[in-house]
Write a structure and sequence with these properties.
The structure is a homohexamer.
Chain A: E1 23-24, E2 39-50, E3 53-62, E4 67-74, E5 80-82, E6 89-90, H1 94-97, E7 102-110, E8 113-121, E9 125-132, E10 138-143, E11 149-154, E12 163-169, E13 180-185, E14 192-198, E15 208-211, E16 216-218, E17 221-232, E18 235-245, E19 253-256, H2 267-270, E20 278-286, E21 291-298, E22 302-309, H3 310-320
Parallel strand pairs in A: 6-10
Antiparallel strand pairs in A: 1-22, 2-3, 3-4, 4-5, 7-8, 8-9, 9-10, 11-12, 12-13, 13-14, 15-17, 16-17, 17-18, 18-19, 20-21, 21-22
Chain lengths: ~325, ~325, ~325, ~325, ~325, ~325
């Protein structure tokens, strides 16, 4: 079992008088848009425990509105120091090394190292994979799947000897559709055995869905937070919900929560470069207490934090599930 | 003459130093988005006097973003108790009873009962009609008109023995056009004699228009508040204005105010699930004082209130009318 | 039972060596695009037996590309004389009388007269209804349903005392969706009790469908020919197929043929003002022999004829039906 | 050399602790949306020194959402009195005089008078040119270029005896493309010798760009502030940056700053009739101190002010330039 | 008066039994798509009398589908020899000389030389102007108007000392709108005094219109053939009609024929690279006999010829005119 | 070296008087649309030598317009017998076995068997791979790549031990963009190392491109015929051209022919279910004579044949190449 204790998980109790399954951190946003000199916005970012502290890979759009990913460290998961310069990726192939854009990273400890996946510009949006063991040296592996794809998220351990990745095939624009698929690989390079996981449903997830943080292993299944998009007459609205995937056949959905768990309602979620977006890319979990901390982007502009309890999430899934 | 006194109409005088014909309630929004446990947003809702108090039918989108209509009561028209569960409609035909979506209700006292009309999902948006006599038991009648239609609003008395309904034919998406028509019926089931009432005009109403609250009878004509939509480069902007329709031939427009009366300007109108929306669905009127209270949705998220005086509205129409 | 003998039905046997359920007349098109001095094209037209001969209402687009409907007569249903001037409609209401456009007529003998329905421009496409008793004097009744609607087709007798009309709600452009509904009326003026009949299906009918000729009564149900539209990467392709509707509840589909019966394949169907269109608007039936003659438009340019046998059509429906 | 001292230029020092090249006025917005009784919004407006004070031409959308341009005066460039009625233009040709819409003015002192250019409705958006000598009498000259065009900006002196105008050819809607061109004229009536100046680039200026204020002459070249538009999944985002154009061949770009200088981040830039817009139309310059004051519209709703130092802008251009 | 005799105008009498005002040459198309080794298609081309024979500038799309214009000669206006290589244009400015695309030429004798106008790629479609005196040496002048523009056609003599050009402002794609404007110039370089000439009308010209051949001077006005485009559900349909413009104020329309004169009906007009196109670019006129020969492109693939008589065209305009 | 003699390759010499590098078979189309009782159209099909005769996998759209692939045999490659029923694929996974659609097959002999690739409906268009050894039993392997993808074509031998596949990532509609990529696999199941091969270019291939037949090995490189699509104002036009890819690094383009080799010009290419399509899916090659026979679909309706000589194709590539 992968999950272990994370005693220093960032935490704040549910506000009195509310019963929401997921609640916001009262000091949101934890990272402001201009937190580094070069940044226009910092959001949709991934955080992992690292050497008793926390490390992260952050989406920083600079003032040219170039999208890239940067390294950061934190003692408490709340106050962050983020590099002003983007990560440099070691890569022998000059064509693959060329920068087009990088965004929406996820980070996962898998085997003996941290893997990073992100939306990597290669003649369109593709799923880049790289790794680091020390958050100093970062090595680019390959684009896992052909363009046009986004929201590539690795399952945090091999299953039957195979790596597993969730992704959301897309087009090369502001895609108006999108389902989640799972692909398998013996080597993180070659991917196949693609299986449909789940598609859109009416309401908050009517337009497209995509995997959010790296799934959390529970005895009952993989807990997946995922975003869903609704198209209003003023554009896309991004919310997020949860599902539980089968441990051994993670393309099989056990539960899928009917309502969303968080939708854009605060100013930092509703006002910014892209209004009405909450977009989770990382979740921390402390098994002994059941605490979950979810990092999410607000309005494609800032980084925010929300909290939940594992048992309550599982109850929510059981009670509200609609497959 | 239908209109009678409504001494307990919600009211607040025009703020000092302003001359707007319609002004906002200072404690808006009166209903917050999460006013019931299940709601994501409560807006575009209809209110009527009922047994010395007030009753209403409220559009509540739940946390799945399903759209449905709920009952509510209030002593003063300001503080509301809204049912957490949607209205259940009595209906023998299982196909008609099936729930697709219900939204944007209007309520009208007509003859011996309250009729409710709303946008009813039946293979697309259609105009559902039902009635209640006690706000306890609600009976579904029929879809008044074929899909695709929205903003069906009944005239509050028969004219020459016929029921009259305003509506706005649409398409099955976020429609980019829309004119108001009037249809007649002997029985509230079969509708015909469709007449064009009015179409779009440049400016705030350039994209589409739709009837708002149930028209208010005046000696000069039916006072109709209606919404108009402008398409900016960031989507639709919903404002509302007014017109006066002929008492006996309500498809004939006597006056049509040039400017809008209220456009989205406050935070609760500009920020929310759909930015930049004011959308009126109900108006109360106290004939002795001339006071009008208009209930409207803000940003497709909350319910707000605005006020006006009948004589000033009529003056506005006379002076600014453009047919 | 409405159907009677029609000994002089136009006819040509199935070509040797083929087994198609529906086959084309070998001398198609029977009406050329310039058959009247004013016409640019003549297509999508309706034919009925009349006084031992045949009468028809023809869609003639003139050289300005205005769309209107004209009267015509024929001795044999093959050679037609069509008026150069459009039908003049008696109508007291100047607003209803105003010409916007008229197209795609159907004609049906119902009770004591011939009713004509067509797509009537009234602030967008609506369903106009008129009648004639002698093909000399034509009276306009009303627009049966609100815009935006097309392909309004009357069932040729009342059912439980009510008139029944099939129609296809649309938008105000080249609509990309469309299902068939049935509405009922006590008086041909007021319409209600709208019921969904059938929607699109994959393949030749994936984009939209619409009723074609007036349904033919058979002991097993109403035989409805209907067109279906597929969207290729070069636009719409119109084919037609068939379904059988319940005699007493004609919104219930008994059979719906899987394949289409005729798709655009000949030059006069594939080349013209709108390539790749076959569009049926009328069918004659001779009960004693089982012969059916179907009039259809080719490429929105000319009028053509196809033939079938009733028993073969019913066999086709039984064998290929997919509901 | 045109530029002279402007000792009374509005000014506020850069806030402590920041290093932004352009910074906002702390009391923004300087003009509220309802600053005149008729106005719905006042933005995208042009200011010039005039008789020791300041005069301006202001875009005021009225409550019908008609777009027109109004005159205003100010002692300090901060507090403005704006006429409630739009400017009346002297013009002999009734067709040219007819009002369709006027918006986004620029004003420039050129030779012996102030020229005003704006987006002038003439069967679509065109570039209107007029002049005034006293801000009392305004004379319309001609539409400088054919529709569809916007953002016509005059270079503030003749070059080789020719007037020079920057413009951005468009379509007749919410255009999704747009490059800057320069045209020349002997008489301000007839324009030719059109040269491409610069086009879109990835990031904040990926969709379209357009000249902002009248260019400022410096020994190194014309300093041009220009807006750039990015298309997010919720619509257009307008930022602005800078470029330096060759003094004698102003269609040649010497420097073009990579990042934008100001993007929508404050509430009055992100919330309003069109969310996420900063749109500069005028800049004042005091050569002795190097101070620059930039007037810009916020959210197509209000008028705001930002400041910069000439030497810092030129440094920024040199250091970040990407051609 | 410019028009003179052209005794050797190509000609064929109207076919017996028809009364069309414009009729096709029986041996159409006169130029096949592969008439030169490099050509994929030859169409939308301009012809003038030259030294007792005929010369022309031809749109030849090559097998890469690059669009360019080529020179050709003919003895009789029917059999043509067209250069396999495109015209080389003398031009000092390397930016203007660069080839992007050239298409849809018109040629006119004006003063002392032949001017050629065409749609010239310069950061989008613009109106290129060049001239030749001998059809050997061709000199490029300038782009007359900013992009995005097409169908630039010179009036064949100066009016009040000014050159006059008709054009059709467009966007940078397959434009869905388009009106005809007239601009004036003292020098063929700088253009201004833009006036609206005419816009779209319902039917065959509902989507866009554009000037066709160089106008023919008659005592009553300039005879302008122009194309009009209708949007069917399978794309654009190009027909052409005629109008008469005021001799001294050619932006004033005297007559505008209601119906089109020729619409795509033959195989070589309905089948080809772009189905359903007739597009005229040149007309010859023999004043003594009144004969007119119109060169037009068929289906954007071949060149065809049609004939008319001047008096009949003028009668047609008088009788059918709709302004 | 894979290529061997194919003495019975279908063949017809180039017509006298022409110099086209690719020429059509004079008896085209070789397979009519109704060649099987169930077919609406037969096109975009793949042919291979098989046991001294020829076998093929044919795209047959049935009369429901369902797209599926059928087996066929021929003695001479010209006259074909095609099964009326589609191929049944052996597959254990019921989800993968489910039929959504199958179209545009390619067949290649690779190692010890024939592999078939096609566009396989799996929650959108994906690349299905299966194999057969005897054209009797067909086994489904997997979807090679995630949706949305089309035109998956295997290189006919392993390179450095890896299978190589060309494909064209797409969206889920009538995609308006598309480049060719190459992916590698150790097992035909898991694919990675994705490399960009080539993208669109102006002219006949401006909208999208896709690999056609299985590449033919030559000493100089892999000869790839590929289709290119141009968007006219009446939809897509499909032509085909050729390129030469590096033998060992087939994502490197050695030559890319500038013009297309065949564009839709005949009736069976310009008229049919999708006008203006030539779409090659298979090529036979007889090395000793240099003869090439290319099978291609015409108008998405029929199957046609064209011929070429290898040395002429290579000369064409060398002379016209534009990278």
């Amino acid at each position: 079992m992968l999950n272990t204790a994370l005693a220093n998980i960032p935490w704040e109790d549910r506000p009195a008088g509310t019963s929401d399954v997921v609640w916001r951190y009262s000091r949101n946003p934890i990272i402001q848009r201009n937190a580094t000199p070069s940044s226009n916005s910092i959001f949709n970012s991934a955080v992992v425990p690292f050497q008793g502290r926390f490390a992260g890979v952050f989406r920083c759009d600079n003032k040219k509105r170039e999208m890239n990913i940067h390294r950061g460290f934190s003692d408490d998961g709340l106050a962050w120091h983020i590099d002003n310069e983007p990560i440099e990726w070691l890569c022998d192939d000059p064509e693959l090394r060329a920068f087009e854009h990088r965004y929406d990273p996820r980070v996962v400890w898998l085997g003996d190292r941290y893997y990073v996946t992100w939306c990597n510009g290669y003649h369109g949006p593709a799923i880049g994979i790289g790794y680091t063991q020390d958050f100093e040296k970062f090595t680019f592996l390959e684009n896992a799947l052909l363009p046009y794809n986004r929201n590539g998220v690795l399952v945090p351990r091999k299953i039957n000897g195979m790596f597993c990745m969730l992704s959301r095939p897309s087009d090369n624009g502001h895609t108006r559709y999108g389902d989640i698929f799972l692909s398998r690989s013996p080597d993180l390079i070659h991917w196949g055995e693609h299986r449909f996981v789940m598609g859109t449903k009416k309401g908050w997830q009517e337009t497209k869905i995509g995997a959010g943080p790296v799934p959390i292993e529970t005895p009952e299944g993989w807990l997946l937070f995922f975003h869903g998009v609704l198209t209003s007459c003023n554009g896309f609205v991004y919310s997020f919900g949860a599902a539980l995937l089968d441990l051994e056949q993670p393309w099989k959905v056990i539960y899928r929560g009917g309502p969303c768990l968080l939708s854009p309602q605060t100013t930092y979620e509703c006002v910014g470069d892209v209004p009405n977006v909450v977009f989770p890319c990382a979740a921390l979990y402390d098994q002994p207490t059941g605490r979950i901390a979810i990092y999410y982007g607000g309005a494609d502009t800032v980084t925010a934090l929300a909290f939940a309890m594992m048992d309550e999430i599982l109850d929510f899934l059981r009670e509200s599930s609609e497959l």
